[in-house]
Amino acid sequence: MAAKKGRGLLMVYVDVPAEVEDEFNRWYNEEHVPERLAIPGVLNAARYVARQGGPKYLACYELDQPEVFFSDPWKNLYKNPSEGTKRLSPSVVGSNFILNLYRMIYPDTLSEESLQAEMSPTILVGRMSVPPDLEETFNHTYNTERLPECHKVPGYIRNRRFEAVQGQPKYTTVHEMQSPAVAATPEWDAWRTMETPVWNSQVRPHMVHESGSPGIYQRIDPT
User: How far from 148 is each of 14, 175, 176, 212, CA to CA, in Å?
Assistant: First the structure.
C-alpha cells in the first residue's frame, strides 16, 4: 500500500482578502491541490483554516522527500500556470504569504500506522528558532523529554518535527489532534507548562516563536 506520509513536508500559509476568498478557496480545492497530488512523490495533501494564530489558511503537502518540490513536474506547473493560478495563487492575492519546505528530523522513522494515516483533522503547528549554540540541546530535550509526554493527552494523535530546507524559521513541530478542543484541555495545558530542568533553564528562555505561532488549524476542503 502506498505511503501517505514521507520525509518531506511543504507548508503554505496565507491571508486572503474577503472579496476573493470564495473564489480563492474554489481554485485551491478544485484545481491547485489536485494538480499537486498528480505529481510523483506528492503523497497526500489537505487545507486548513486557523482557529488560533495565523496566517488564516494553511495548505500541507506530504512529500516522499523534500526534493520533490524541485522536480521537473513541479517546475513545469510553475512555468505553465493556468489562468486561475495567474489570478488566484497565494503569491498574487495573498498577504503574509509563507512557503516553507521541510525535512523530517523526528521521529527517525515512521511506524506503518503513521505512514498510512490520512491528513489530520486538526494540527497545532509551532514555528520556532533558537540560537545556533543551543540547537543540539533544544533538539535533544524536545525529542526525548517533551514530545513523548504529549501522548498522554486525550485526543492527541502523533507528532513530528521538521527542519527547513527552504524558508524560515528553521524548525517546525506538527502536533496532530482529533479536534481543536484538545488544545484547550487541562491535560494539554499541563503538558504545555510542564517543567523539565534543561528545557526551562536553558532552552525556553531563548526559543522564539514566529508571529502567529503556535497556530491551531482545522481541516477544511478538500477532505
Answer: 31, 12, 13, 25
Residue type, 142: Y
Distance CA 90, CA 133 (A): 35
User: Measured on CA atoms in the order 214, 217, 114, 166, is the torsion positive or negative?
Assistant: negative
User: At residue 67, what is the residue type?
Assistant: E
- CB burial readout 178-209, b (16+ within 10 A) else e: eebebbeeeebeebeeeeeeebeeebeeebee
CA dist 170 and 164 (Å) reads 5
Whose cell is 472579496? That residue is 19
Residue 7's CB is within 10 A of a number of other CB atoms, namely 18
Single pTM value for the model? 0.96
* 2/33 Cα distance (integer angstroms): 19
Q: Assess contact for 39 and 71: CB atoms under 8 A.
A: yes
Enumerate domains of the chain plus CATH numbers: 8-220 (3.30.70.100)
Instruction: Decide: helix, strand or coil at residue 137.
Output: helix
DSSP H helices in 135-176: 135-141
Q: What is the pLDDT of residues 133-181, one digit of tens each?
A: 999 999 999 999 999 999 999 999 999 999 999 999 999 999 999 999 9
